[in-house]
Write a structure and sequence with these properties.
The chain is an alpha/beta fold and 458 residues long. It contains 14 helices and 22 strands. 39% of the residues lie in helices and 24% in strands.
Length: 458
């Protein structure tokens, strides 16, 4: 009998976690509502930022685990929840965010997981934001596809044409072929949507992650999910790791309807894109970030918090290496576009008003007009050639020609033979006469392009 009760308790724990899959999968996390007095009792962190008792922060990581190393935190978010009002906001941290990692100097924030797992990632995030994390949730991103299939798919309103074909992808070939509009997606198609890379780089990818989250929320809180919970339980067992206790999960399940009713505002760490050689970075605006964190808790930075933020900013600015190229002016259009999309709250009733949706689409069509010159094209450069510094050199070339280079990155491969430019056919004329051999492929929007550097570049 004792064994049976223990099994039942274990099953209950997983069942509740399944009911809160939205939390673990997409970052829609909330804290417990413990009852009792609602009187504020501010907690003052070392940063000087005051955190009222009715607010909680939960760090969510999507980790790409690999057989040969610890992996990287491919997705990183912090969810701020007001336990009294049932409101929640999501703060996305670009994986290229340059931060100080204890005992490892300054590096990309997604490397913190490789250096010290969730514990070091948590400490790094706390130092950057200036507030403590109450819990963490880690999800193996390789399990996303199986979990979405266990949910019988999700509905996503794809915002634009997305096409990319790479027969030499490490996973045996990759084809992303999505058309604009609302469509039902299996796990495989949903992953295509999240993986797609465009001229906005990692910033555009964050916007799609947050769009994806809203779709998961709609499905998880629909009656159709109830008969699928047993299969979801089995998938979650091997996919999710968290230090959130059972009591908090129960409270979370109670808060989710309220969070959905209020809608969730999604924002990203303010800052600027930059690159050094072939390494891309997101340079956080420390002052604006600390103000954002405080605003999410409906407070203002006190004098101590302002002084601390200014000190941290000065230390950060002093740490910037020589040769770092900041793409502030040229990248603003792409960054602001993605930020506006990310800031849209989730619809309270799970379905956007038809008139509002159509108006938004008409506005989008107006914004995505044919580029009247290279300055209107946002270009992401990915070095798949194995040639050190090739992406940085190409970025300088394209910027000299007037292109809006939004970022550079080192690809997953180092043996691509031929250079490919993926862009809409309306952009072709601006890429004619490149001083290197390349093939132009149709895909993306009129104001975007992705260049995959091959070994024939130099």
């Amino acid at each position: 009998m004792r064994v049976r009760r223990r099994r039942r308790r274990n099953f209950t724990r997983v069942y509740i976690l399944a009911a809160c899959l939205l939390v673990a999968l997409a970052g829609v996390l909330a804290a417990s509502f413990m009852g009792g007095s609602q009187e504020e009792n501010p907690v003052v962190a070392e940063s000087g930022i005051e955190r009222p008792d009715d607010y909680m922060h939960v760090m969510v990581m999507g980790v790409d685990r690999r057989s040969d190393d610890a992996g990287r935190s491919d997705t990183l978010m912090v969810v701020t929840v007001n336990k009294t009002t049932g409101k929640a906001e999501i703060l996305s941290l670009p994986r290229d965010t340059r931060v100080r990692i204890e005992d490892n100097g300054y590096d990309k924030i997604n490397h913190a997981y490789a250096f010290g797992g969730s514990k070091l990632t948590r400490k790094t995030v706390e130092e950057l934001l200036g507030v403590p994390m109450d819990y963490y949730v880690l999800v193996d991103i390789k399990a996303f596809e199986r979990i979405i299939d266990a949910m019988d798919g999700i509905d996503i309103d794809v915002e634009k044409r997305m096409y990319y074909e790479d027969p030499w992808d490490d996973n045996g070939g990759l084809v992303i072929d999505l058309y604009p509009g609302m469509q039902h997606m299996t796990g495989d198609r949903a992953i295509q949507y999240v993986r797609y890379r465009d001229g906005e780089g990692d910033i555009g990818r964050i916007g799609r992650q947050q769009h994806f989250m809203r779709a998961v929320m709609d499905k998880m809180l629909s009656p159709a999910i109830l008969p699928k919970l047993p299969q979801l339980v089995e998938e979650i067992r091997s996919a999710v790791e968290t230090d959130m206790p059972l009591t908090e999960m129960v409270a979370l399940a109670q808060l989710l309807p309220s969070i959905r009713e209020h809608g969730m505002k999604s924002v990203m760490v303010p800052g600027k894109p930059a690159y050094l050689e072939d390494v891309s970075y997101w340079l956080p605006d420390i002052m604006s970030l600390r103000e954002l964190v405080s605003k999410q808790m409906e407070t203002e930075l006190a004098d101590k918090a302002l002084a601390n933020a200014e000190k941290v900013k000065a230390q950060y600015d002093d740490s910037l290496p020589k040769g770092l190229t900041v793409m502030a002016e040229n990248a603003d259009g792409a960054v602001n576009s993605a930020a506006k999309e990310a800031a849209k709250p989730a619809d309270g009733n799970g379905a956007a008003d038809t008139d509002t949706r159509e108006a938004a689409k008409e506005e989008q069509v107006k914004q995505v007009a044919k580029a009247d010159g290279p300055g209107g094209i946002s270009v992401l450069i990915i070095n798949d050639s194995g040639i050190n510094g090739a992406a940085a050199r190409l970025a300088d070339r394209l910027r000299a020609k007037g292109f809006n280079v939004t970022g550079v990155d080192t690809g997953r491969k180092s043996d691509r033979s031929h250079t490919i430019i993926v862009t809409d056919s309306s952009n072709t004329e601006w890429f004619y006469g490149m001083p290197f051999p390349c093939t132009i492929m149709d895909g993306g929007e009129p104001n975007e392009a992705v260049v995959y550097i091959g070994q024939d570049y130099e």
